[in-house]
């Protein structure tokens, strides 16, 4: 059975997350329903595997999934047909690529990247409602950057993971955490860029929620290091809402979408 990698973008607002659920809409469910209309293998109950199981309300600009199909599709025709059958769900297949049987969207990945968008302004968000976390108070960029610096590298992130997290170990290596400020009308958007081989459940949202407390002046930057060292969920700041979080990249030893003619970088680019 030919295997295809799919580069997927979606608005997570209407979904209960990536993973298929019996009684709630999911991104996986929408994609599998579209595939079932195109390929008889999915009518028999085949599944789609993804690089990351995003939570309810979390978005993606570069989710990667793979599916085993019966028909050996032309990749461009497959992506076009899937997009037709995905309507009107806010899910798009940006590209499809034929891959080897040893490719696995989750287990072959060597890194994942997330973007979190935090809007600071008094006027309500309009075009970005549901796509950012908005606060009405000003934030100190330098203080948040100083706090974030304590989290780089290999640590026990027990403080910054959900009590429901099923990962075998809380020890992770955070390869990148960068915060940038971008002017918007009557306010500022802060963008948090994080990269690691893998993340714990709620790790990014816990980190951003904690750093927001630093930015508003409720915590000094050094308290982030103290929270990390505590290895105690109670030491964490508030977990921020999912609306500002995006899965923005997945890295592989060989990028399955390299060389495909699409505007902008591939998920691993």
UniProtKB/TrEMBL annotation:
<dbReference type="InterPro" id="IPR020097">
    <property type="entry name" value="PsdUridine_synth_TruA_a/b_dom"/>
</dbReference>
<keyword id="KW-0819">tRNA processing</keyword>
<dbReference type="GO" id="GO:0003723">
    <property type="term" value="F:RNA binding"/>
</dbReference>
<keyword id="KW-0413">Isomerase</keyword>
<dbReference type="InterPro" id="IPR001406">
    <property type="entry name" value="PsdUridine_synth_TruA"/>
</dbReference>
<dbReference type="GO" id="GO:0160147">
    <property type="term" value="F:tRNA pseudouridine(38-40) synthase activity"/>
</dbReference>
<dbReference type="GO" id="GO:0031119">
    <property type="term" value="P:tRNA pseudouridine synthesis"/>
</dbReference>
<protein>
    <recommendedName>
        <fullName>tRNA pseudouridine synthase A</fullName>
        <ecNumber>5.4.99.12</ecNumber>
    </recommendedName>
</protein>
<dbReference type="InterPro" id="IPR020095">
    <property type="entry name" value="PsdUridine_synth_TruA_C"/>
</dbReference>
<feature type="domain" description="Pseudouridine synthase I TruA alpha/beta">
    <location>
        <begin position="148"/>
        <end position="253"/>
    </location>
</feature>
<comment type="subunit">
    <text>Homodimer.</text>
</comment>
<dbReference type="InterPro" id="IPR020094">
    <property type="entry name" value="TruA/RsuA/RluB/E/F_N"/>
</dbReference>
<dbReference type="InterPro" id="IPR020103">
    <property type="entry name" value="PsdUridine_synth_cat_dom_sf"/>
</dbReference>
<feature type="domain" description="Pseudouridine synthase I TruA alpha/beta">
    <location>
        <begin position="9"/>
        <end position="107"/>
    </location>
</feature>
<dbReference type="Pfam" id="PF01416">
    <property type="entry name" value="PseudoU_synth_1"/>
</dbReference>
<comment type="function">
    <text>Formation of pseudouridine at positions 38, 39 and 40 in the anticodon stem and loop of transfer RNAs.</text>
</comment>
<feature type="binding site">
    <location>
        <position position="114"/>
    </location>
    <ligand>
        <name>substrate</name>
    </ligand>
</feature>
<feature type="active site" description="Nucleophile">
    <location>
        <position position="55"/>
    </location>
</feature>
<comment type="similarity">
    <text>Belongs to the tRNA pseudouridine synthase TruA family.</text>
</comment>
């Amino acid at each position: 059975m030919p295997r295809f990698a799919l580069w997927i973008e979606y608005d997570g607002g209407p979904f209960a997350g990536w993973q298929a659920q019996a009684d709630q809409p999911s991104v996986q469910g929408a994609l599998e329903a579209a595939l079932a209309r195109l390929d008889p293998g999915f009518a028999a109950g085949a599944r789609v595997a993804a690089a990351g199981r995003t939570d309810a309300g979390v978005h993606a600009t570069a989710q990667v999934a793979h599916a085993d199909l019966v028909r050996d599709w032309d990749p461009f025709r497959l992506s076009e047909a899937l997009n037709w059958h995905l309507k009107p769900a806010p899910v798009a297949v940006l590209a499809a690529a034929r891959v080897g049987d040893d490719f696995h969207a989750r287990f072959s990945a060597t890194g994942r990247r997330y973007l979190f968008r935090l809007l600071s302004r008094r006027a309500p968000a309009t075009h970005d409602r549901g796509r950012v976390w908005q606060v009405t108070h000003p934030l100190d960029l330098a203080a948040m950057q100083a706090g974030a610096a304590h989290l780089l590298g290999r640590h026990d992130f027990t403080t910054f993971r959900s009590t429901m997290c099923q990962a075998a170990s809380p020890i992770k290596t955070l390869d990148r955490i960068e915060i940038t400020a971008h002017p918007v009308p009557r306010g500022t958007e802060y963008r948090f860029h994080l990269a690691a081989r893998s993340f714990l459940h709620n790790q990014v949202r816990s980190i951003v929620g904690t750093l927001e407390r630093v930015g508003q002046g409720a915590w000094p930057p050094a308290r982030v290091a103290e929270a990390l060292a505590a290895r105690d969920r109670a030491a964490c700041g508030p977990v921020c809402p999912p609306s500002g979080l995006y899965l923005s990249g997945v890295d592989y030893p060989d990028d399955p979408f390299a060389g495909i003619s699409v505007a902008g970088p591939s998920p691993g680019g």
